[in-house]
Amino acid sequence: MLFSLGQVVATPGALDHLISHGISPGALITRHSIGDWGNLCRDDKLMNSMAILEGTRILSAYNVGDVKLYVITEADRSSTTLLLASEY
């Protein structure tokens, strides 16, 4: 793990979508915590690498089926949220 996740929470919509696709929410949280930022452009990936060092917000994006999900760790590392992009 590259950084603290804090309290990990997920929206009901994200959980329902992942379960309907046979994917564990923990799988995306783990990818996020080890620096697999998913479907981000190169610049956003670099921003995440800097965020680890500077203590700013970290965001990952993953496509599951035709839906994008985000995993966001707050700058103060108090919490990490898994949510549908449409819920952002």
Tell me the layout of helices and strands:
Elements (H helix, E strand, L loop, with lengths): L6 E4 L1 H9 L4 H9 L8 H13 L3 E7 L2 E7 L5 E6 L4
Parallel strand pairs: 1-4
Antiparallel strand pairs: 2-3, 3-4
Can I get a quick summary?
By secondary structure, this protein is of the alpha+beta class. It is built from 3 helices and 4 strands; from the N terminus they run βαααβββ. It has a 4-stranded mixed β-sheet with strand order 1-4-3-2.
Task: Describe the 3D structure.
35% of the residues lie in helices and 27% in strands. The protein has 88 residues and is α+β, with helices and mostly antiparallel strands. Strands 1-4-3-2 form a 4-stranded mixed beta sheet. The protein starts with 6 loop residues before the first strand and ends with a strand. The model has no long low-confidence stretch (mean pLDDT 97).
